[in-house]
TrEMBL record, chain A:
GO terms for biological process: carboxylic acid transport; sodium ion transport. One of its GO terms (cellular component) is plasma membrane. Gene3D superfamilies: Sodium/glucose cotransporter. Keywords: Cell membrane, Ion transport, Membrane, Sodium, Sodium transport, Symport, Transmembrane, Transmembrane helix, Transport. InterPro entries: Na/Glc_symporter_sf, Na/solute_symporter, Na/solute_symporter_CS, Na/solute_symporter_VC_2705, Sodium:Solute_Symporter. It comes from the Bacteria. The chain crosses the membrane at residues 17-38, 59-84, 90-108, 129-146, 166-183, 195-213, 260-282, 294-315, 405-433, 453-471, 477-501, 508-534, 546-571. Pfam families: SSF. Coiled coil: none annotated. PANTHER family: NA(+):SOLUTE SYMPORTER (SSF FAMILY), SODIUM/PROLINE SYMPORTER-RELATED. It is found in: Membrane. It comes from Roseinatronobacter thiooxidans. This is Cation/acetate symporter. GO terms for molecular function: symporter activity.
TrEMBL record, chain B:
Keywords: Membrane, Transmembrane, Transmembrane helix. Residues 7-83 form the Sodium symporter small subunit domain. The chain crosses the membrane at residues 12-39, 51-69. The keyword Transferase does not apply. InterPro entries: Na_symporter_ssu. This is Putative solute:sodium symporter small subunit.
């Protein structure tokens, strides 16, 4: 197991460990306290917090629910590595909320049920449609939750010096406490607390770094401000140093514009189709609150998402400045002079240097396009051989020489991001099992108490499954997010949207659409990434010249959604029209009035 | 409430949704990606306006759109008497 960075540094080590323990332990005590306070007494409590959540609170809870370990830890690093090209994540993961707010959330709230398959099953008057929706939901939510559990385990092992198995068990136990006990009610208020923890943890180092580099306290403005050290705009400086080292410039577009559009669109409609996000909008009292709540969710998400690109660009510049203390034409940093944070992170295995030409200096440049200087001076390859994107956010406080409590805060923030998303996913999974499978399909006569018990047992099973998969990750953890977004985009999103915006869409059309969307997306992803992501089983190499019309498998969700719509309309034309009562149902969900009456069923 | 007014309410809703979604697409897919070369001449802090839209402006516009739609619909709900 990677040992702790600060562990090897005399008295500093103990202090940092104690600080991390205080921050993480304190935040956990808070979550468990909330769980005890917010116990669920009914299925309405458990599935939808009795629809009594303030819209602004729900906005913050939605933001925490949505922002996972990937947003908190990985996203700034992804943007830093590519620059402009990875703006797709920023636009895609926020643009989905416009779709949610305008096209889905208010109507689903008006419909007034507890789960996404509930809507699809009732609107398309078909148990088959319900079952297809349950299967899509389970596949995407389970794959998504694996990433959260492993993320939490890694954060534990790095910051609290426990091995990742122990870390995973601690994380599971904490989630078990508030999710099984409190259901949606407990999850909502812990997510609110987790949002506060994660946004503070993310913002503080970013503000410090922006001040250091540009003198501007707002990272969003700092990104476009003057770099104090060079007296020219920060991004211009970054472009120049990158190009002098043979890299692409930061602000230019170096990929396919077509895939950028398609990938952004896939992320947007995938976001809008994720059940664990949609069910958060079932917790507010009124339809108008669902609209308000989506706006606040976007505000709270944008607080992190507008800071992330600044963190990415500034950290990238900071790292280059560290490696070339006298400018990129000057002498590179000597191996003997590496700052502590580099030594610390080398021990985690996420950062690696190699003195290829044996001169004791670190030459960092693009080997594929070596600058003139590398040729003249006979450099023998890029000597920062590994820089894992995840380091960027986690090491940010150390890179900027911030005090130890900021590091403790980052530890608590990373865990808050992973656990809040895990809890939301687990609720989506357990309600699909207890409500859609047991109550709606297998045993409709189940009592309220029986269903609540079933919900708690399915939650416990879901946590056990997530823990097991976290301990034995199926080796494709990196690709599963693409699969989850692809499935959400291609199966659930079109079905829900047609259910609201078309009175004529019938069960045969919707089922055909979901199966075509789901099937084509899975097939396309497996063709290039291997069957069930097993390496070596892909039928075509995953390179742009093999892609159908140049479409990347990660971008296919939008195409799958289009195929879903087309298949649904063709089959609809050939099959029996919708019954009159379903047309009436669609009319009723289109107006806010009367949502109170539909709560119980 | 008559069917006529439900229809009108829905038409007005679809109209404002369409307008908002056009703006949604314009700031992200348009200014942020496809139309970026057209905005290359407008400098913003060491880069151009398209880059700013891709990393800041689109997100800020999204927030404005959602709150605008919320306000518009609250008024529309009241106008048609369909609010809760």
């Amino acid at each position: 197991m990677p040992s702790l960075a600060w562990k090897n540094k005399g008295s500093y080590e103990m202090d940092q460990f104690v600080i991390n323990l205080i921050f993480v332990g304190g935040s956990f005590a808070l979550y468990i306290g909330i769980a005890i306070w917010a116990r669920a007494g009914s299925t309405a409590d458990f599935y939808a917090a009795s629809r009594g959540v303030n819209p602004i609170v729900n906005g913050a809870a939605t933001a925490a629910d949505w922002m996972s370990a990937a947003s908190f830890i990985s996203m700034a690093g992804l943007i830093a590595a590519v620059g402009y090209g990875n703006s797709t994540f920023l636009m895609g993961w926020t643009g989905g909320y416009v779709i949610l707010a305008l096209l889905l959330a208010p109507y689903l709230r008006k419909f007034g049920r507890f789960t996404v398959p509930d809507f699809i099953g009732d609107r398309f008057y078909s148990q088959t449609a319900r079952l297809v929706a349950v299967i899509s939901l389970l596949v995407m939510s389970i794959t998504y939750v694996i990433g959260q559990m492993t993320g939490a385990a890694v954060a534990f092992s790095r910051f609290l010096e426990v091995d990742s198995t122990t870390g995973l068990f601690i994380a599971s136990a904490v989630v078990f406490c508030y999710a099984v006990l409190g259901g949606m009610k407990g999850i909502t208020y812990t997510q609110l607390a987790q949002y506060v923890v994660l946004i503070i943890a993310y913002t503080i180092p970013a503000v410090f770094i922006s001040l250091q580099l540009t003198g501007n306290a707002l990272p969003q403005l700092g990104l476009f401000s003057t770099h104090t050290a060079t007296g020219q705009p920060l991004l211009q400086t970054l472009n120049e140093v990158l190009m002098e080292l043979g890299f692409n410039d930061y602000t230019g577009n170096h990929g396919s514009t077509f895939n950028m559009v398609l990938f952004t669109l896939s992320l947007m409609i995938g976001t809008a189709g994720l059940p664990h996000v949609i069910i958060r909008f079932f917790t507010v009292p009124k339809v108008a609150d669902a609209r308000t709540s989506a706006g606040w969710a976007l505000v709270f998400i944008a607080l992190l998402y507008t800071v992330a690109p600044a963190v990415g660009a500034m950290a990238r510049l900071n790292i280059i400045t560290t490696l070339y203390p006298d400018g990129v034409q000057g002498e590179p940093l000597a191996f003997d002079n590496k700052p502590d944070w580099m030594l610390n992170w080398e021990r985690t295995g996420l950062l690696r240097f190699e003195d290829k030409n044996g001169d004791g200096l670190i030459q960092y440049y693009n080997e594929a396009n070596p600058p003139q200087r590398a040729i003249d001076e006979g450099w023998e390859g890029n000597e920062m051989v590994l820089f894992n994107n995840d380091i960027l956010v986690l090491a940010n406080p150390e890179i900027a020489n911030l005090p130890g409590w900021v590091i403790g805060l980052i530890a608590a923030g990373g865990l808050a991001a992973a656990l809040s998303t895990a809890a939301g996913l687990l609720l989506a999974i357990s309600s699909a099992v207890s409500h859609d499978l047991i109550k709606s399909m297998i045993n409709p006569g189940i009592s309220e108490k029986g269903e609540l018990l079933a919900a708690r047992i399915s939650m416990a099973f879901a946590i056990a499954l997530a823990t097991y998969l976290g301990l034995n990750p199926p080796g494709f953890a990196a690709q599963v997010v693409a699969l989850a977004f692809g499935l959400a985009a291609a199966s659930l999103f079109p079905a829900i949207m047609m259910g609201i915006f078309s009175k004529k869409m019938n069960s045969a059309g919707a089922i055909a659409g979901m199966i075509v969307g789901l099937g084509s997306t899975v097939l396309y992803i497996f063709t290039y990434l291997g069957w069930f992501f097993i390496p070596g089983t892909n039928m075509l190499p995953n390179t742009p010249d093999n892609w159908l019309f140049g479409i990347s498998p990660l971008s296919f969700g939008a195409v799958g959604a289009a195929l879903n719509f087309i298949a649904a309309f063709i089959v609809m034309k050939m099959s029996a029209p919708v019954p009159a009562e379903i047309e009436a149902l669609v009319e009723s969900i289109r107006v806010p009035k009367g949502s109170g009456a539909a709560v119980d069923h | 409430m008559s069917d006529k007014s439900t229809d009108d309410y829905w038409k007005a809703n679809v109209r404002i949704i369409t307008i908002c979604m056009v703006i949604w697409a314009l700031v992200s897919f348009g200014f942020g990606i496809v139309l970026r070369p057209l905005l290359a001449g407008i400098p913003v802090g060491g880069t151009d306006l398209g880059f700013w839209f891709a990393q800041q402006g689109s997100m800020l516009t999204f927030i404005a759109l959602v709150f605008y739609y919320r306000g518009y619909m609250n008024k529309l709900d009241a106008e048609f008497g369909v609010e809760e």
